[in-house]
Specification:
272 residues, Sulfite Oxidase, Chain A, domain 2, Immunoglobulin-like, 8 helices, 9 strands
């Protein structure tokens, strides 16, 4: 009987260990793995105040570790970005220089850790919190970090080639002038839309539908309807388990939404 008790205890330990949330970090092929308790026990863990959390929409306090500290000793390859993958398939492309910044006069990226015994509030219009691991920003220029560059429920951070190099399907007509608004729309699309949607098969995300195959939304929605859909999806159509919440004017201005629509229209016949 004692043997069976020992086996049962070992099985419980394995199950408990498997259930412990883990954040995977891979930089240039070198990997590190951090459990919640390991992160909370780090000497660089700190209590931080986020004056305006981009996802919660208000001031928040977190126990967090600087992401630059987790990457210390690893070198991101030239020309790469840090891709943050969430448990629901969300995939954000993050500039390396911002991730590695430790200057409070610009921005500092932190991995906020949700304590097991003190859950965070539920996200607006959702039934879950931002934990267990959530990338938040502090610093004088934190307000300039786009809303979609605050990935929550993170599971993995990995270096990848820049979106332009990795997915040529995203490219606009090279004949377009450098200052063409369509190019600005492309940049906004990669930051704000590619986190949830694929485009002509390009992208890592697996949350929403592909926005160019089989049809581009500019081919079946008017510009006004598409603008409204991006701003507030429920104002155009609603459906069970809708995940898209839309973008507030703080997150994307009307002009920026129109630039994204201009990019989509330009790409309607460029399906890769």
């Amino acid at each position: 009987m004692r043997i069976f008790a020992v086996i049962g205890l070992l099985l419980w330990a394995v199950t408990a260990s498997a259930a412990e949330p883990v954040l995977d970090l891979t930089i240039g092929g070198e990997s590190r793995h951090f459990t919640r308790e390991q992160l909370l026990a780090r000497p660089d863990a700190a209590t931080i105040e986020v004056a305006k959390d981009a996802i919660y929409g208000r001031a928040m306090t977190y126990r967090a570790v600087p992401l630059a500290g987790l990457i210390a000793g690893l070198t991101p390859p030239p020309g790469t970005v840090i891709e943050a993958i969430a448990t629901d398939g969300y995939a954000a492309q993050l500039p390396v220089d911002q991730i590695l910044s430790t200057d409070p006069k610009t921005v500092i990226a932190w991995v906020a850790i949700e304590p097991a015994d003190a859950p965070w509030p539920k996200l607006p219009e959702k039934t879950v919190s931002a934990g267990t691991f959530y990338l938040v920003w502090t610093g004088d220029q934190a307000a300039t970090v786009r809303s979609e560059q605050w990935p929550y429920q993170m599971a993995k951070l990995d270096t990848q080639p820049s979106p332009a190099a990795r997915w040529p399907e995203l490219a606009v007509d090279p004949a377009l002038p450098a200052a063409d608004p369509i190019r600005s729309g492309q940049t906004l699309f990669v930051t704000q839309c590619l986190v949830c949607h694929k485009f002509s098969g390009a992208g890592s995300a697996d949350v929403g539908p592909d926005l160019n195959r089989p049809m581009n939304p500019t081919q079946y929605l008017t510009a006004a309807a598409l603008h409204a859909l991006i701003r507030d999806p429920a104002s155009v159509r609603d459906w069970p388990d809708r995940k898209m919440q839309g973008f507030t004017p703080e997150q994307m201005s009307d002009r920026e939404i129109d630039q994204v629509i201009g990019y989509l229209k330009h790409m309607a016949d460029r399906k890769g």
